[in-house]
Amino acid sequence: MLGSSAQLFNYDDLKHAMExxxxxxxxxxxxxxxxxETLSQALDLLQGTKGRVIIxxxxxxxxxxxxMAATFSSTGTVSFFVHPAEASHGDLGMISNDxxxxxxxxxxxxxxxxxxxxxxxxxxxxxxAITKNPESTLGKNASIVLKLPNNGEACPLGLxxxxxxxxxxxxxxxxxxxxxxxxxxxxxxxRQRHPGGKLGxxxxxxxxxxxxxxxxxxxxxxxxxxxxxxxxxxxxLGCVGIVDSNGELIGIITDGDLRRKxxxxxxxxxxxxxxxKNPKVxxxxxxxxxxxxxxxxxxxxxTNLFVVENNKPIGIVHIHxxxxxxxx
Length: 328
Fold this sequence. Notes:
Radius of gyration: 30 Å
CATH class of the largest domain: Alpha Beta
Strand order of the largest sheet: 2-1-3-4-5
Low-confidence stretches: none
Number of strands: 12
Order of helices and strands: HHHEHEHEHEHEHHHHEHEEHHEEHEEH
Shape: elongated
Mean pLDDT: 88
Strand content: 15-25%
Distance between the termini: 43 Å
Structural class: alpha/beta
CATH topology of the largest domain: Rossmann fold
Helix content: 40-55%
């Protein structure tokens, strides 16, 4: 039989874990305190480019560069990664004079970057270096240097890239997030770049899934409950909206209302005497997740929301529509 969790826990593991995390936090703290005007200069260059942001790096720096390029591209900055070895065998032709290059090297002495550095100088392509050594070959050939902390690695051997790669990836996120602020990049813009998966579903708008036109169950306020029964059966959304002479939504009758108010005389009653007034509504530009939140957090919970514009219904969304979209 296995012992207790306390007996199985290796306290050396915890000690080394804490030391690693503390070392990486220390490196990020140094990075944070070292930020200066070169950050704004780099952002000006990235924001003002007429072309793309080309990111390059070798080894672990290359892996981070690929992530950085993906983050930039998904947040409004057109970017892609160029492997420095492939660049030397034809991929330099992918880089135009309108582009900006971000070259990543912890030491600044990656030999594989030499051809890209020469190409950038020859064609006057601006180059931002991310390195811990501004006096390195990379640093001296860069237009702008974003300096990484020279704080050693969390690796006990001081060899495996750990703290340095953490600082690099955070610096890439700093650039991407600042560009989001500068460009006014919105959730709608983000969704256009993430149409699939859970992100795409969460960022869908009510207008993308709402029923509209003849699919909307509506009745005038002079109708009787017999009309409501027929409309609800025809539209099959479990409710009917009541509008006044101006076409504005003034109430709703749901399946629940029918069950609560069922009587032999119900079929001849006026809809305005049965309806619930001031129903919950939503704007067509709202996110589907907002619609789900309203439905789930309204008293007993509701299954429909009318979509209105100037208080006039232009659509209706059902909880099942949200489920199909992958949100609810």
